[in-house]
Amino acid sequence: MIEKVQKQLQESINVKIAALSLAEKVASASQLIIQALSHGGTAFFLGNGGSAADAQHLAAELVGRFEKNRKALRAVALTTNPSTITALANDYGYENIFLRQLQALAAPGDIVIGISTGGASPNVVKALTWAKEKGIETIAMTGENGGDLARIASLLLTAPSSHTPRIQELHITWGHIICGLIEEALCSNG
Hints:
It contains seven helices and five strands, in the order ααβαβααβαββα. By secondary structure, the protein is of the alpha/beta class. It has a single domain (42-186), classed as Rossmann fold. A five-stranded parallel beta sheet has the order 2-1-3-4-5, with helices on both faces. α3 (50-63) packs parallel to α7 (164-186). The protein is globular, with a radius of gyration of 16 Å. The mean pLDDT is 97.
């Protein structure tokens, strides 16, 4: 059992070491969000399953606090309202649950962050496609091939792995780094 634990920890470490080469892209993603927030925009986060949890986690870090007591930042996870999600899924199909919310809430100057380990979740693809068509900046966090989101996102962060747990571990690490850079840039005076 100990060997299995060590093996999985080593795999996680190896993915993060491989991701060092993506530092510039992570900084660019941070800058896109900083730009939107500094001009009164909102950061919209979305994803399914574990990626939905990451979307909620990262939105909460911005609205609440990450490492500093500071002003609240405009961030929304489109995964948090069961009544909205189930009504939209029932009336418009599950593939439209994020799209319909963005149609109601998002505008140019905002930013949409889609999280999908395979990069092919139909509801995430539809949402980012719509955002792109409306001139809204988009960031996608995916696994190694980027899936359909590779051709849609303004900026693509591809975890160097095809193993879902390792991808998700890197996504939340990137999210924490991005939240820290946002706080540093926008909230130095509380």
